[in-house]
Design goal:
By secondary structure, the protein is α+β, with helices and mostly antiparallel strands. The chain has four helices and nine strands; from the N terminus they run αββββββαββαβα.
Length: 180
């Protein structure tokens, strides 16, 4: 075998090994998502909520510049019928739900003061009404200035939150009149 052929063979082997390592890393990351999905679904199972799970792409998140960025890769989502979607992302869990516009304007949000959340339009989901660092008053002014009939909410939790804690939070949403 010539030196040129040996170099080609070595390069091919290196690329194949790199691809295997990337596939292994991707598989490990998705396995972690699968296990978290199973934990949360188990916490909701045989409880008071009807739910179903699936994998969905086309979700959005804010990048480091604060701009919305579409993601093409799928993440697991648990839909709690009539109440919320629980999105399991690589670094966090988010719970999406909504209120009617009038209810969102009248609500005090005191029960949610300890939670991180964002508020946005349902029709125009890139319309940002509230994010960390703003006041509730500013959020209500933003909602007043919009034409949205429904207001979306996304509550953010650390990835390592326990399924039972998500169950308790979903119960709070239902008690407070949120829906999906």
């Amino acid at each position: 075998m010539s030196i040129s052929e040996l170099q080609k063979q070595t390069n091919t082997n290196i690329h194949e090994k790199a691809n295997l390592i990337r596939e292994s890393e991707i598989n490990a990351a998705y396995y972690r998502l699968e296990m978290k999905q199973a934990e949360i679904a188990h916490a909701l199972f045989h409880r008071i909520f009807e739910h179903e799970s699936g994998w969905y792409n086309g979700h959005y998140h804010k990048n480091d510049s604060g701009e919305w960025q579409r993601e093409s890769y799928p993440i697991p989502v648990i839909s709690v019928k009539g109440l919320c979607d629980i999105e399991i992302q690589f670094d966090k869990i988010s719970v999406s739900t909504k209120l009617k516009r009038d209810a969102a304007l009248a609500y005090s949000y005191k029960k949610f003061s300890e939670y991180e959340f964002e508020v946005y339009g349902v029709e125009d989901y890139l319309a940002d009404f509230y994010h960390k660092g703003q006041t509730i008053q500013k959020m209500k002014e933003n909602i007043c200035a919009c034409d949205e009939a429904e207001i979306g909410f996304s509550f953010v939790f650390p990835f390592d939150i326990e399924g039972k804690q998500i169950f308790e939070f979903v119960k709070l949403l239902r008690h407070e009149g949120f829906y999906y």
